[in-house]
Design brief:
single chain, 176 residues, mainly beta, 2 helices, 14 strands, 9% helix
Amino acid sequence: MPRVQTSPMQGTRGRVNSALGSRESSPMRTVLDESKTWFLHRLSYEEELRITLIEGKRGNESQDIQIGDVVIRDAYPIEISPTSKLVLIRFSQYVAWQVVNESFTIFDDYEQRDDTGFLQILEKSKYLDYVNGSHGWYVEVLGKGKHYRIWTENDVIDVITCVEPIIEPIRHLTSI
């Protein structure tokens, strides 16, 4: 079924400037923000956590979508095309990570996060609290952890790490 294009950050609260650790409107900008949306293409974890995202683009032909008794007219599907970009996000020293179906993700007033991009830093979250409470001795070995969240169309990826991720464009789909 085609997806209706929406922003993954609609309805979220609070912006956190990761460099300063203070609440203000400076978002964490990355190459991910140059596109409208992303899909999870591949995830692997040999020696490091590697997340490959593929760009979603608006389809060429509109379609009517029926959800229950409601019909949404002239909706454009989000598709992967031969010109879709690929981006690799690498976490060299992760402590914990999880992937959650985007449809089952809820927003929480407890969280303090930059909510303006596809890669977010959460200064405060229940997931970070859980990892620190259950596996907190990592702080003595690696240092204080940060919670990064990656939004895609179908998946939300949470990563607790002590090292900033490396984000690099790979190439277009046609060159694979």
